[in-house]
Amino acid sequence: MKKTALSLFVLLNIVCKAQNFDVIPLGIYGGEQEDNLSAYLVGAPKDNAFLCLDAGTVNAGIRKGIELKSLEGSAESVLKDQIKGYFVSHGHLDHLSGLIINSPADSKKDIFAIAPVIQILQNHYFITDTWINFADQGQKPILGKYHYNELQEGSEIPAPKTPFFITGYELSHVNPYKSSAALVRKDNHYLLYLGDTGADRIEKSDRLDHLWNTIAPLVKKRQLNTILIEVSFPNSQPEHLLFGHLTPNLLIEELSKLKEKTGQNSLEGLNIVVTHRKPTGDNPELIKKELLKNNPLKVNYIFPEQGKKISLP
């Protein structure tokens, strides 16, 4: 009987720690370094069908991933064959310039975005004056390489040719400008990626509160173990100069609201992948130190490196 109980305990431990997502950062910063801007491949372990969450840097990140053996094949094959689609959180260049620049060399695939972001792509980027229209809607001539998939708030849709399903949620990034988050599901496991966002208090918004309400049950059930969220500035940045971004203190403020919805100790060990640190001066190290020094919720902070694979439950 004891042996059976022990075996069950070991099995449950294995199941709880099973790896469900691989994340390969193609770019990690929130500005300036054009070869290392926000873009994260998410895939299933031992699979090479990826969904790209934002696309500030693509080609340089792919080459770095190959160098670090996080990706297999040539840069061309990863771009054309392994990346199956893009989620674009909002219309700022540090989140989509890699998609635009690499579009002539890319293959047919899907773009997932909320309606305001699709409109920005149609009206400002995929037009003759700035590039050419590689998508399947908008200004003529229409080349039809990319298919727009409009994300409706809270409605899940499949990401074709991947094991993933994606749900979009609006965020506020200098209200009323809209950014967005993607809740990615594989089987019964979830990963949450947020594009740029300000704190609700600063933005005079309820978008993060709505998102926390949505994911709280998944966190409580341990179905959602990882959140990728931005921290752009250190705590010394004045609140009136945040431009729709978070600091370490504001991240804790927001995660504390999530904890209120999930219960005591519910966030302990939750993986928080810190994205979009502004690379100015020593900001990235300052942000890291401030987060690690003050961690009352006991979350597990992960600081991504370009090209280095992160294996997640």
Low-confidence spans: pLDDT under 50, at least 5 residues? 5-15
Q: Into which percentage range does the β-strand content fall?
A: 25-35%
Q: Give a short account of the largest sheet.
A: 8 strands, mixed
Class from helix and strand fractions: alpha/beta
What Rg, in angstroms, do the CA atoms define?
Answer: 19 Å
What's the total helix number? 9
State the helicity in percent bands.
25-40%
Provide mean pLDDT, rounded. Answer: 95
Describe this structure in words.
The chain is of the alpha/beta class and 313 residues long. It has 9 helices and 15 strands. The protein has helices at 2-16, 59-67, 75-82, 97-102, 115-125, 200-203, 207-220, 248-262, 283-293, and strands spanning 21-27, 39-43, 50-53, 83-87, 109-113, 133-135, 142-150, 157-158, 165-172, 178-186, 189-194, 224-230, 271-275, 300-302, 310-312. An 8-stranded mixed beta sheet has the order 6-7-5-4-3-2-1-15. Strands 8-9-10-11-12-13-14 form a 7-stranded mixed beta sheet, with helices on one face. Helix 7 (207-220) packs across helix 8.
